[in-house]
Amino acid sequence: MSLSMYQASIPVFLRQLDNLSSILGIAAADAEARKIDPSVFLNARLAPDMFPFSRQVQIACDSAKSGGALLAEVETPSHADDETSFAELQARIEKTKVFLQGLSAAQIDGSEERTVTLRRRDKETHFQGQAFLLDHVMPNFYFHLTTAYAILRHNGVAVGKRDFLGTR
Question: Count of domains in the chain?
């Protein structure tokens, strides 16, 4: 049996967004327990030229929702990128999950051969659907998930591989 484009995308996004949500919960509880202003974590970076934690979460959500939308040939929902708390980031994750849950296998399956056009500022990049998912969307999604995790871990939040994988 072959793996469908839907199976390779939407359930993966949903599971990892659930894991990200759990990690945010751990970070919020850690900040409270250690009496650390949550903004310390939300604004933390791994390097000065990298985006802060909050932006990593936003981009992870954006990668999943835009990837799903482009594969399904539907409009990508827009979010304001104005979250300033763990609760607001949790709401962003939830909105993303609700959107993804509304995409059906029928909308995405068959997209592997379809041309997908990614528009960024003044540039358009064209992909075949499968290459778009596997070579662009998934690496970008996991990059920002991993970076968000690493920022928290670097700041002493007790998260581990099991939290990232959702096997705790």
Answer: 1
